[in-house]
Amino acid sequence: MSNNLLMGVVIFMIQMFNVSKTYSNEVKALVDVNVRIQKGSFVFLVGPSGAGKSTFIKLIFREEAPTRGQILFDGKSLVRMREREVPYLRRQIGVVFQDFRLLPNKTVYDNIAFAMEIVEAPTKRIRQRVPQVLEMVGLGKKGNLMPHQLSGGEQQRVSIARAIVNEPMLIIADEPTGNLDPETATEIMNLLLEINRRGTTIIMATHAKDIVDSLRRRVIALENGRIVRDEERGSYEQGSSASLPGSLAQGGYIQPGGTVLPGNNSQSLYSLQERGALR
Ligand SMILES: Nc1ncnc2c1ncn2[C@@H]1O[C@H](COP(=O)(O)OP(=O)(O)OP(=O)(O)O)[C@@H](O)[C@H]1O
Ligand SMILES: [Mg+2]
Q1: Model confidence pLDDT, tens digit, residues 62-91
Q2: Among the bound ligands, the one closest to the CA of 26
Q3: How high is the pLDDT of residue 10?
Q4: Domain of 119?
Q5: Could you tell me if residue 20 is inside a domain?
């Protein structure tokens, strides 16, 4: 028996083995991708438009199936997974999109509650949990508003609250700051960093060079469907030096203007610690 089995613990959130994805129009979106992402890590997925970032993300929550290869989520095969098991997989993954994707005719509160109703959470738990996550994302007083009454940054906070409400193991975010001004993007990043600091794995596709370069997390770069770079404390472009030392960035927060504060700094913009537990 391997140590892995003896311990009963899988340390990888995602493992991909020789994964390729060819769409029906013969476009090769991913070609022979091999990657392992540890639980608890924060990973940036970068690369030019059309490189395959969104496809990579869609494979993880089984929005798309690979044409070839194997994908393991928490040690379980997504290729062999039955259709009826997919809802269970999706309970363990929160997804955040560039365009927020809130239900326009539901209040902020109901948008989040709906994600719990889908997984048949008890009413009592919903009433307890929704205000908790609203508070956590800084929208404690806005539960009764409709999405169109919120700013873009606030809408993205709602979508993050919705993504974490069922306490997923993994958050995947596809360009979550793509529609936001730099300052609001910084706030959203700090929220995601705090969620990660509390143990949730995060995979984020982005074109935001400043964010990637200031945080120095793992960077997986795709080009034409292939992984061309995978660095532990990476930057947006190969060999970029436009950043602070990684030791400072690790566990830190970004200030407006791009300065990174070390973790546990009392000046962190959205230190959720003071606002109540995530779990
Ligand atoms: N459903 C689909 N059917 C056919 N081709 C697709 C489909 N989705 C994506 N593609 C193609 O696959 C390739 C990878 O697309 P993908 O959306 O993964 O790129 P991306 O890196 O997310 O790009 P962007 O930065 O613009 O979001 C592109 O050539 C795209 O046109
Ligand atoms: Mg994309």
Answers
A1: 999 999 999 999 999 999 999 999 999 999
A2: 1
A3: 84
A4: 42-65+83-275
A5: no
